[in-house]
Structure formats: structure tokens, C-alpha cells
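User: Here's a chain of 474 residues. Predict its fold as C-alpha cells.
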Amino acid sequence: MAKEYDVVVLGGGTGGYVAAISAAKKGLKVAVVEKDKLGGTCLHRGCIPSKALLRSAEVFQTVKKAAEFGVEVASPTFNFLQAQKRKEQIVSQLENGIHQLFKQGKIDLYAGTGRILGPSIFSPTAGTISVEYEDGSENEMLIPKNLIIATGSKPRSLPGLELDEKIVFSSDGALQMESLPKSILIVGGGVIGMEWASMLHDFGVQVTVLEYADRVIPTEDAEISKELTRLFKKKKIKMVTSAEVIADSLIKDEASVTISATVKGEKQEFSAEKMLVSVGRTATVSNIGLENTEIVVEKGFIQVNEFYQTKETHIFAIGDCIPTLQLAHVAMHEGVLAVNHITGGKVEPLNYDLVPRCIYTTPEIASVGRTAEQAKKLGTETKSGKFFFRGIGKALVFGESDGFVKIVADKNTDDLVGVSMIGPHVTDMISEAALAQVLDATPFEIGETIHPHPTLSEAFAEAALAVDGNQIHG
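Assistant: Prediction complete.
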């Protein structure tokens, strides 16, 4: 029997479940189709579990340095299985919370695989969802007035680097490791690769990073990349840039993996116990029935307008399956905006330059807006200010004084262009910078805002003053 809904969401990940809850709060009848677990990649295979393990790594390193703070402890050891257990408890608690929110919103959850049908006996337009079940139960048909596709993404690999999740891991498989290797090769020096490099090093694993570009995290400010590289090398993490991996050179057995790479024209060989392939993510758009619709897919992504409508205007798409920033908080916001458009509310198109980006390495990295290099390519003449955390009392008290805050402004208008930070707790500090950009604050206004002392946020104020050479402590 077919069931009718105001909104059906295909995919119960971060963007999907937030869109569903938002629609339910507006009084709409809502259903979500999810073949796995509510929360999707972010909750189960990304943001939350990886940050739980990163926190374990941070605590372990803090305890190892406890004597510097006058705390005498016996030689600490790391229990990886306990860290994994804690991670799973956090994930389970958050997943249960989403289920509770669904109950409160009277959102129907269909635990099966959803496929989009074309015009049929159920509806004269495309968009009916056929829900298929693994146990062979009869398919259920959901007829939505509006459909939101939120199918997310999955780890990408390279031809010849097949993922077996035993020797050659994706980030998904690495999260399920039951024991730590003594050494690992990480192919890819982007956000995910750097977080894993930081985490595994702090757990005591020997880490080698192979990055194709001439620097790691190439989408971030060049000075941030340089500082992270310096600090990682200081920790004895081996960083190899301009490295073109020769995929068909892969040799593996139960004890090791070896691969060759061309590094600045010279062929080199690298070996370790395990390998992590971290070369980005690809949108999940196949086998969901898009061929039954007029929806356009280009370069692997569903094409949408500023309101997230596809070519079939009653079908929307949000999150990692569209060509926008692949970030959980972006997917959430896109879901809310799509629902606002469905309900006739005023929708201000999302300005992706105002989206803060975070990397949870040690030290952390956070940014918003454009870098000076990006602004220059667009013809903007800039000025910048920088302030180091070693000049901030709270950073010294924390024992974490590496890094800096950098603010870039338009030389002619004084408008903020972008902010980049590397240092302690900057993933929390970046929200002030994001708000400053939304409000069109100038560096002068940021610097004139009283920041409490002693706090890490003083570095943001000093960097703002430094744009015009007016910093106090540097």
C-alpha cells in the first residue's frame, strides 16, 4: 500500500535527519528512508568517531607531559580497545538521541534501501520512493509532495589501490581497527589524512604521509600548511610532498604493504604495516533511481539551484551529493534552507565563503573566507596581520603555544577577506571570525572589541590590530 507524505528524505545522515526534523517542526508529515543507521557518515564513520579518538590521543599526550605541570604519574600506557569502546558509547548515545527526536517529531523511519521511481501508477511525476528490504519483505511505496535527496558520499580510492579494510584502509575501515599497527603509510595529505596522521602519531604509530600536491592541506593558507608541516616534522612524522603514487606498484601481504611513488622526478619506495588511502570522497548518486528522473548529474554530483532544487523542482538535493563543501554543518544548513523553500519561507542563498572550516589535528586548524592567495587570483589587493600564540598568556598556561592567527583584509575597503588559525582550540575560536564576516566587521572593529584576559581569543584581537600594525604584545 502506498503512503503519502509532505516530505520524504532519502538518506538519514546529518543533512537528511536535520532536514526531516526541520520539516516536522513546521507541521509537515515526514518520512526518512535510511538503509544503514541514523546519523550517517558524520556520526558513524566520520566527524564524531574520529574526534572521539583524537580526544583520546590528546589526553594520552597530555598525561605523558603531566610532569611539566607538576603532576607525577607512572609511565602511562594506551589502551586502544578502551578508546574504541568509548568512541562507540558516544556514537550510540548520539544515535539514540536522533531516534528520540524522530519520535518527538512523529517522523516515520523506513530502514531499507530507497530508490526513486519515474512517473507511474503511484504518481504522474517522478519522485515516488520504493523502499526495498534485505529480508525480502514486500517493497513499500512512499509518495511525497517533495523529495529531499541526502545520500551523502563515500571514500574515494585510486585505481590499483583497492581497499580491503585489512591492510589497505579507507577512513571508514580504519575506524574499525582492533589494534594499532607499528607503522602506516597515509596516501593523501588533505584534511582527513592530516587528522589521521596526527592521531596515529600520538597513539605511538610511525607515520609517513604521501601527498601529490607540493604541500599538505593545499586548500588552506600556505603559511598554515607550512606551520603544520614544521610541527609534524618536529614530531618525526615523515611528510613527503610532490609524491605521485604508482598504484600498480602496490605489494601487500598480511605483515606489510609497499608502494612506489615518483617524488620530484625520482622514484622512491615506501613500506609500512598498513596503508590508509585518504584522497577525498565521492558522491553517492548511483543505484538510487536518478535515471528515472530528469535530474542532471555532472562530474559525479547532482546539480541544484540556490534553493537546492534539481531539474525536477519538487525534488531537492543537499549535502555531499551536490557540488558544495562536503562538511556536516553545510549539509545541515542546506537541509534547513531546502525545507524553508518548500514551506514558502524567505530563503537567503547560502554564501559558502562564510562557512567555517575545521581540521582537528594537534594543533588544530580553522579558517573562514578566502586566503590571501585566493583573493589575489580574484584581483583583490589585500593586507594581513598575524599574531603568534606564544605571546598569549593563556596559551602558555595551557602548555600549547605553537601556531598563530592570521587575518586578511581588503586593502582598499578594509573588509574582512578571510581568517586562518592554527593553534590550541581554534576550532572553537573560529566562530567569532565567522560572525565577524557575516556582520562585515573590519579588523579595527575586531581589535577594538574587548576580549577577556587571559583567554586564547586575545590572539584574534591582536591579529586584527596587527593588520594595520597596531598590535600591543607583538
